[in-house]
């Protein structure tokens, strides 16, 4: 027999997750009114339904900042959703903060996903792998397999959503987002990010200036 749930419980779950009212009601009925179990059920549902929502326009959201302790690494990330209502939810804000922290921790990440990596980067990575000494004498079909495997590994290192989530390495950032798509019942997208490292580029600019000064002196 399905346990009847109170409007107060539905409201509490909706506030915690931002999920739709009927989804909250069903999750509470299945979990016999237990809030934490209902949240887990909503997350599991998301892994099955997130792909269906991924084509929907996400034009609301927020820009989240994160400054790592010591103030030497800073991150800005734009996280999009479908409505202003979801953009105000604490769970959406927590997701944005976690993604910003992920970016601060994973400095090799340069793109949101593999799909965002430019073609010239792919070509360059393939050239690097094809020239490695350990595969030069291997048959072409074996060489191709090895190179493709190495390239995919390298591309995942550059891709944010392919990273293991820093707070739970059993799931990827992509799976983390899908869980929240379920909880909030909206499409969620990481649109862009920018990482700031203290002093980054100063050495290059200093060298450029030194070269310009040298040129000026040599022409006198």
From TrEMBL:
The lineage of its organism: Eukaryota, Rhodophyta, Florideophyceae, Rhodymeniophycidae, Ceramiales. It holds the Pfam family EF_TS. PROSITE patterns: EF_TS_1 (PS01126), EF_TS_2 (PS01127). Associates with the EF-Tu.GDP complex and induces the exchange of GDP to GTP. It remains bound to the aminoacyl-tRNA.EF-Tu.GTP complex up to the GTP hydrolysis stage on the ribosome. It is found in: Cytoplasm; Mitochondrion. One of its GO terms (cellular component) is mitochondrion. GO terms for molecular function: translation elongation factor activity. Belongs to the EF-Ts family. InterPro entries: EF-Ts_dimer_sf (IPR036402), Transl_elong_EFTs/EF1B (IPR001816), Transl_elong_EFTs/EF1B_dimer (IPR014039), Transl_elong_Ts_CS (IPR018101), UBA-like_sf (IPR009060). Its main location: cytoplasm. This is Elongation factor Ts, mitochondrial. Keywords: Cytoplasm, Elongation factor, Mitochondrion, Plastid, Protein biosynthesis. It comes from the Eukaryota. It comes from Dasysiphonia japonica.
């Amino acid at each position: 027999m399905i346990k009847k749930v109170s409007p107060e419980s539905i409201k509490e779950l909706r506030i915690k997750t931002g999920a739709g009212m009927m989804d909250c009601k069903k999750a509470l009925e299945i979990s016999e009114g237990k809030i934490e179990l209902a949240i887990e059920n909503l997350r599991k549902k998301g892994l099955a339904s997130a792909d269906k929502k991924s084509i929907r326009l996400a034009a609301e959201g927020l820009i989240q900042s994160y400054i790592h302790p010591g103030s030497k690494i800073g991150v800005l990330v734009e996280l999009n959703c479908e409505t202003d209502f979801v953009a105000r939810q604490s769970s959406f804000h927590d997701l944005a903060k976690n993604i910003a922290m992920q970016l601060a921790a994973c400095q090799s990440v340069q793109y949101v996903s593999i799909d965002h990596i430019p073609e010239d980067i792919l070509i360059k990575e393939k050239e690097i792998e094809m020239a490695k000494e350990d595969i030069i004498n291997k048959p072409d079909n074996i060489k191709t397999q090895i190179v493709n495997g190495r390239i995919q590994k390298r591309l995942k290192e550059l891709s944010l959503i392919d990273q293991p989530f820093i707070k739970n390495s059993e799931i990827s950032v992509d799976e983390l987002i899908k869980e929240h798509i379920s909880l909030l019942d909206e499409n969620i997208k990481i649109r862009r990010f920018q990482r700031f490292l203290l002093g980054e580029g100063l050495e290059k600019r200093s060298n450029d200036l030194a070269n310009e000064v040298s040129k000026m002196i040599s022409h006198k």
